[in-house]
Design goal:
Structural class: alpha/beta
CATH topology of the largest domain: Rossmann fold
Mean pLDDT: 93
Shape: elongated
Strand order of the largest sheet: 2-3-1-4-8-7-5-6
CATH superfamily of the largest domain: Vaccinia Virus protein VP39
Number of domains: 2
Radius of gyration: 23 Å
Strand content: 15-25%
Number of strands: 15
Length: 387
């Protein structure tokens, strides 16, 4: 279709396949997976749909120009030649971010400043007035990426990072990113067909993302604003049509989602966030020390959690991780347990054999998402029973 254009969805390392699958399910065309990003094609309505509906995307960028650059003066000249009047009014506002790789350009802030100068100078020369810089709520957010000498200029349709869903009004000392939480739930293979537990739930992010996945609720319904809402071609009627279409695809959920935390303040924060997300019907949060609990009933339990790494909390990590392994082994038979950690040394003290390990990053920390299968009886008995 002639109204289609290429877009780039940015994501976290290790989530590229998840994002590719999400895009395919939404209806994207010409999908091409990269590192920390996936390229695809769609129209304006599909851009709205991606921002509303993708769980593992951080940004949706709309590339508008690509060219080779020799130096800073060449960058300035080529940025200035872009017809910025198509995207921004002279009395509007802008913000520029830049990412660089290679040794031609080495200071991202300088590249962002040079880009801003070129755009402002173009308006001043042609209109006699210039847009202002607004780093918080710009009318147009511009993304510049330079890979050695190849420069890609894109419009940021998302605005703030898509991990800022809008439901989180309270956080604990080490909150998990919402996109990371959603990706962990998806990587763990949970499909909403069993009970789900986060035994160290903190402010409830994993629980909320799991509930939205179980009910097929679009993750970004509660955001205050997307970047494209300030664009010159913003179509509110089309946006509402896309929003209603996604909402019509929600589904019922017939199991339990449970969260424990031994910190009363964390439990209060989790309950606040669950209420703000309008998910009280599906999520149960209780003040409990996981190490003093045990699995109730015979039904299969899917467990996913983000234990302390020792980065910001003062704990005896060897004993703490040993207790995780002991609790799972003795009190949680019939459970598939997953957790993410960047404390690879402490992981050795779990005392259980992993059935899967996936390399990820939590912020800038290299981490592992690990899986433990807690069988009823011995593993040998379980294998014989499933033949």
């Amino acid at each position: 279709m002639e109204d289609n254009f290429e877009m780039v969805a940015k994501t976290l390392f290790g989530f590229e396949e998840l994002l590719e699958k999400e895009l395919r399910q939404l209806g994207a065309q010409y999908i091409k997976k990269g590192v920390r990003h996936v390229r695809f094609t769609g129209d304006k309505g599909f851009m709205y749909k991606c921002n509303l509906g993708l769980r593992t995307a951080i940004k949706i960028l709309k590339p508008i120009k690509q060219f080779h650059v020799k130096d800073e003066n060449d960058l300035y000249k080529k940025i200035k030649s872009i017809v910025w009047e198509d995207y921004l009014d002279a009395d509007g506002s802008l913000a520029v971010s830049a990412t660089l790789s290679g040794d031609t350009f080495t200071h991202s802030q300088y590249v962002a400043l040079k880009t801003k100068d070129a755009i402002v100078d173009r308006f001043r020369d042609s209109k006699g007035e210039r847009p202002n810089v607004d780093l918080r709520f710009p009318d147009l957010k511009i993304d510049v990426h330079i890979d050695r000498k190849l420069c890609s200029v894109s419009l940021d349709s998302s605005g703030e990072s898509l991990h800022k869903r809008g439901y989180k009004i309270a956080t604990n000392i080490a909150p998990i990113n919402e996109v990371l939480a959603a990706g962990l739930v998806m990587l763990s293979g949970w499909d909403g067909q069993s009970d789900f537990m986060d035994p160290m739930c903190g402010s409830g992010t994993i629980l909320i993302e799991a509930a939205m996945i179980a009910c097929n609720i679009p993750p970004n319904l509660m955001r205050n604003e997307f970047g494209f809402e300030r664009w010159k071609d913003w179509d509110v009627d089309l946006f509402e049509k896309i929003e209603n279409s996604l909402l019509s695809k929600t589904r019922d959920f017939h199991h339990k989602i449970m969260g424990f935390d031994k910190s009363p303040s964390a439990v209060r924060k989790a309950l606040e966030n669950v209420k703000n997300a309008h998910l009280e019907e599906f999520i149960y949060v209780k003040h409990e020390d996981f190490f003093k609990t045990q699995k109730g009933g015979e039904n299969h339990l899917h467990m996913l959690f983000n234990p302390p790494y020792g980065e910001r909390l003062d704990l005896d990590m060897e004993a703490f991780y040993g207790n995780i392994g002991s609790t799972l082994k003795h009190k949680y038979a019939g459970t598939t347990a997953w957790f993410i950690t960047s404390n690879l040394q402490a992981l050795k003290h779990i005392g259980l054999r992993t059935s899967r390990k996936i390399k990820l990053y939590n912020a800038k920390l290299e981490a592992r998402l690990v899986r433990y299968d807690m069988y009823s009886g011995s593993k040998k008995t379980h294998k014989n029973n499933t033949k």
